[in-house]
Design a protein that fits this description.
7 strands, two-stranded antiparallel ribbon, alpha/beta, elongated
Length: about 425
């Protein structure tokens, strides 16, 4: 019983051992299969990478080949382009040499007037620019010139006072002279921008002579009359007695009123040939005398204006004349601009004609080229062309002292 038990126990141990061994074998088989699968996958992956590398290398070679072909093609195109350009230039040179000689003088005759017009237009524009720069000088320079002129006028007035006090004719002449000095200072020219002491008839046939008539653009005018009230002003300035000074001042104001009353009655604006506003400018060259009258009679300038007379001191008249001078300069620039526009239009028309002539020249050149090609084809191309026939006659013994150009003969032989 115990022996059978031992045998039975050994069988159990053997079976268990066998079972464990089988389990180990299964595990080893699974591990082996995993290793084999991994090896196969790794080998496939390496093979795929190698194939990709080979494929990339092939593609790179193809790209290099394509680049090389493209470079060769570009080089070929450049060579063909150069050859074609050289041939074109040679043909054009041969075909147009005679034509250029015949038309060189004609083209020069066409271009010469255009060049002269361009030169004239350039000079006109330059002159216009110079005039514009000159006419727009700085305000500081202008004010300094006004100040200098006023100082000069004041000095002259003081020096001439004694000589002018007792003679009305001398006073009038001096006032007109002062006025003309201002006109010239502002750039106005006698008999162009203004006239003096011209005779004009009114509606009743009476002859009247305004001191100065200022011409404006568009055939308009401004009338300026010079009036000098000096005697009473001088008495006021030299008297020390207060009562006498007051009396002289009243006489001075009264003298100015008499002047603009008299000037208003002349109706200068109604004269034949005068296109002037109703108001007349009354110039008083001694500015302190006018300022003193304003202080004494604050309504003096208003009363004068109501009678169509505008009282003008030296500084105010300078500003007015400078404005008139600017109007004339603008008018001159306007005329210059219009002349430039007209000459520009004429230049454009001339240039249009030149372009048309140049197009005709191109057409004639093209026609000459085609005629030349047609003549050369008849001369050298085709069976029995003229060159080959002439050469054949020479070969047969026709006597001749001259030979055809070799390039023409070669062309005929090639054809």
């Amino acid at each position: 019983m115990s022996f059978m038990s031992c045998i039975q126990e050994e069988k159990c141990i053997l079976v268990n051992s066998l079972f464990i061994f089988c389990s180990m074998i299964d595990t080893l088989i699974v591990i082996l299969l995993i290793i084999i699968i991994f090896f196969l996958f790794y080998r496939t992956f390496n093979k795929s990478e190698n194939n990709n590398a080979i494929e990339i290398q092939k593609k790179n070679l193809e790209i290099d080949n394509l680049k090389h072909k493209l470079e060769n093609q570009n080089n070929s195109e450049e060579r063909l382009k150069t050859v074609f350009q050289n041939l074109s230039n040679e043909i054009l040179k041969q075909n147009s040499k005679e034509f250029k000689q015949q038309n060189a003088e004609q083209i020069e005759n066409i271009l010469k007037p255009v060049q002269e017009k361009f030169k004239e237009l350039k000079e006109k524009i330059q002159k216009n620019n110079d005039d514009f720069i000159e006419n727009n000088s700085s305000l500081k320079t202008y004010l300094e010139s006004v100040k200098t002129l006023n100082e000069k006028l004041s000095t002259d007035t003081k020096n001439l006072t004694n000589a002018l006090v007792g003679d009305n004719k001398v006073q009038g002449d001096w006032g007109e002279h002062r006025l003309e000095v201002l006109l010239e200072h502002c750039g106005l020219v006698h008999n162009i921008h203004y006239t003096s002491q011209g005779g004009y008839e009114d509606s009743d046939g009476n002859l009247k002579k305004p001191d100065f008539i200022i011409n404006l653009p568009d055939n308009k005018h401004i009338i300026i009359d010079s009036k000098v009230s000096l005697k009473d002003y001088y008495d006021y300035s030299t008297n020390e007695d207060i009562s006498k000074k007051k009396l002289s001042l009243k006489k001075h104001v009264k003298s100015i009123r008499n002047h603009f009353d008299e000037l208003s009655k002349k109706n200068y604006h109604s004269l034949y040939g005068i296109n002037s506003p109703e108001s007349v400018l009354m110039f008083m060259p001694i500015e302190p005398a006018l300022m003193l009258a304003y202080q004494e009679d604050t309504n003096l300038h208003i009363d004068a204006y109501q009678k169509n007379v505008v009282l003008m001191s030296t500084s105010v008249l300078l500003a007015t004349l400078s404005t008139i001078s600017s109007l004339w300069k603008q008018e001159d620039q306007k005329k210059n601009a219009m002349e430039i526009a007209e000459k520009g239009g004429a230049l454009y028309d001339k240039f249009k004609g030149f372009v048309d002539d140049l197009i005709d020249v191109g057409k004639s050149l093209e026609k000459s080229t085609n005629s030349y090609k047609t003549a050369m084809n008849k001369l050298t191309e085709g069976r029995g062309n003229l060159v080959s026939r002439a050469q054949r006659l020479k070969e047969l013994g026709v006597k001749s002292t001259k030979n055809l150009p070799q390039n023409v003969i070669d062309r005929s032989i090639e054809d």
